[in-house]
């Protein structure tokens, strides 16, 4: 079999991003040759340090190389300055926009054997809703009023529901291949507040329903949940969910909430997905409080590398990485300090590479 070569951009960014992204590169390089995968890496810059050095947080070159040359990428973290800095805005938000990375995918999963097992994926629409950032403030006789546009389109709602359906099918396939899971069937839960916002969330809801009615999703059960009761149930009965699809703002809130259910931020991966490009990104930030000490947990990044591979249709390679990480966690001997252990980043990476 001819080897498939994947070109992967590496964007460490700031803080512990510089410590964990090299780990992501190493796990890809350590995948067994029998998988028929080769990797070419391109180092790319973005972030606050880049801004201080060059005057821009997201150089055009980074965007162009990702767009024209890369199949995937790993993005570390960028620090947010404590005071607003003139001319600086988050490069990851800009990147999502410029590359039309329309889906933010966040799997939330407990280690095998956990007292309350959770295994779900939150699929958050990434391009519109209140994040179009069209706000205005005006004066009235009673004082100032501020308002923001919440924009929901059929196109964005349809493609986010479609990718949620595809993820549900892929998870079904992975389970059928004998991987243990707490779920029986593929299920997509559509989250909205259309009882109040009948036009915007109403459009999201009906469009998502239509997209998931496609015959290729005939094995996928579809349900709806109003976002407030979704939060309640997410905490009371997280095992009830398989794939959750939500507009941007609800998805943002739900995915941080769900991450809290499984412990450290250092464990939770994500992917930003568009046409022909998937960028893996750990959910944590630049963690200035622990940077430079060599103790950052690399697992969120290793899992983000695996998630990126899933969207490049390399499920087998992804499964290898997940299994090696799970083995490290269930044994529990080499854990980083955020998980109550004393291991350094380097020791955790070495242990997981050894298990590949
Ligand atoms: P930023 O502004 O870049 O988001 P932050 O101060 O909000 O930085 P986060 O990175 O969001 O910091 O982290 C929040 C907390 O979780 C910090 O105490 C940090 O040390 C811890 N943390 C985050 N990621 C990891 C990790 N990979 N390993 C260990 N601890 C982590
Ligand atoms: Mg943070």
TrEMBL record:
Cofactor(s) the protein needs: Mg(2+)
Gene Ontology MF annotations: homoisocitrate dehydrogenase activity; isocitrate dehydrogenase (NAD+) activity; magnesium ion binding; NAD binding
Pathway the protein acts in: Amino-acid biosynthesis; L-lysine biosynthesis via AAA pathway; L-alpha-aminoadipate from 2-oxoglutarate: step 4/5
Example GO biological process: tricarboxylic acid cycle
Listed GO CC annotations: mitochondrion
EC number(s) reported in the record: 1.1.1.87
Keyword terms: Amino-acid biosynthesis, Lysine biosynthesis, Magnesium, Metal-binding, NAD, Oxidoreductase, Phosphoprotein
Domain Isopropylmalate dehydrogenase-like: 7-352
Gene3D superfamilies: Isopropylmalate Dehydrogenase
InterPro entries: IsoCit/isopropylmalate_DH_CS, IsoPropMal-DH-like_dom
Reactions mediated catalytically: (2R,3S)-homoisocitrate + NAD(+) = 2-oxoadipate + CO2 + NADH
Family listed: Belongs to the isocitrate and isopropylmalate dehydrogenases family.
Name under which the protein is recorded: homoisocitrate dehydrogenase
Species for this entry: Lasiosphaeris hirsuta
């Amino acid at each position: 079999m001819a080897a498939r070569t994947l070109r992967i951009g590496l964007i460490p960014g700031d803080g512990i991003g510089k410590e964990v992204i090299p780990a992501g590169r190493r796990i890809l390089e350590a995948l067994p040759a029998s998988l028929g995968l080769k990797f070419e890496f391109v180092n790319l810059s973005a972030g606050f340090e880049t801004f201080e050095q060059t005057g821009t947080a997201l150089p055009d070159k980074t965007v162009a190389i990702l767009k024209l040359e890369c199949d995937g990428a790993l993005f570390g973290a960028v620090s947010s300055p404590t005071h607003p800095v003139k001319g600086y805005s988050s490069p990851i938000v800009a990147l999502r926009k410029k590359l039309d990375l329309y889906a933010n995918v966040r799997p939330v999963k407990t280690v095998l054997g956990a007292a309350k097992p959770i295994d779900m994926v939150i699929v958050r629409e990434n391009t519109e809703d209140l994040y179009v950032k069209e706000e205005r403030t005006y004066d009235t006789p009673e004082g100032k009023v501020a308002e923001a546009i919440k924009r929901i389109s059929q196109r964005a709602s349809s493609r986010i529901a479609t990718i949620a359906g595809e993820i549900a099918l892929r998870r079904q396939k992975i389970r059928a291949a004998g991987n243990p899971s707490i779920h029986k069937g593929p299920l997509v839960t559509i989250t909205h507040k259309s009882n109040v916002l009948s036009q915007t969330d109403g459009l999201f809801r009906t469009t998502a329903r239509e997209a998931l009615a496609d015959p290729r999703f005939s094995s996928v059960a579809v349900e709806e949940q109003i976002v407030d009761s979704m939060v309640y149930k997410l905490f009371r009965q997280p095992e009830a969910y398989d794939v959750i699809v939500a507009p941007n703002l609800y998805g943002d809130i739900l995915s941080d909430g769900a991450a809290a259910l499984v412990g450290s931020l250092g464990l939770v991966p994500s992917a930003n997905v568009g046409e022909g490009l998937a960028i893996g990104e750990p959910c944590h930030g630049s963690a200035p409080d622990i940077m430079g000490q060599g103790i950052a947990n690399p697992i969120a990044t290793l899992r983000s590398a695996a998630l990126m591979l899933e969207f490049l249709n390399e499920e087998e390679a992804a499964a290898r990485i997940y299994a090696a990480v799970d083995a490290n966690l269930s044994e529990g001997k080499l854990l980083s300090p955020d998980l109550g252990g004393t291991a350094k980043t380097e020791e955790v990476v070495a242990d997981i590479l050894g298990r590949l």
